[in-house]
Each structure stands twice: as C-alpha cells, then as structure tokens.
Amino acid sequence: MEQSYTTKQGQYLAFIYYYTKLHRQAPSEADMQRYFNVSPPTVHQMIVNLDKQGCIE
What does each C-alpha distance from 56 to 7, 9, 41 come to in angstroms? Predict the structure, then answer.
C-alpha cells in the first residue's frame, strides 16, 4: 500500500533525508525548528505523527 502524507509532512521528510545525507546523523528537533521557523511543540508533534505513520523510526 502506498504511503500517504501531507505536503508539510513531505517537507519534513525531505529535510530529514537530506540533512542526514549531509551530516551523517539525523537532525535534532532544534535543527528542524530553526529550518522551518516553528515552535518546539510543532516540530515535536510532526515527529510523533510521522513516527505513528511509520514514515520514520
């Protein structure tokens, strides 16, 4: 079954992918907060949702 996610979720997944490729480690929530210019709870909730959907581990 094909994975379905929102545009914003896709942006977070792309950021996580490319950040990891460049830095050889996953980005911290603070890295994502700075990049997307959002609050810490916003980043945390996105990570929780992506994990629940099985998009990240």
Answer: 16, 11, 18
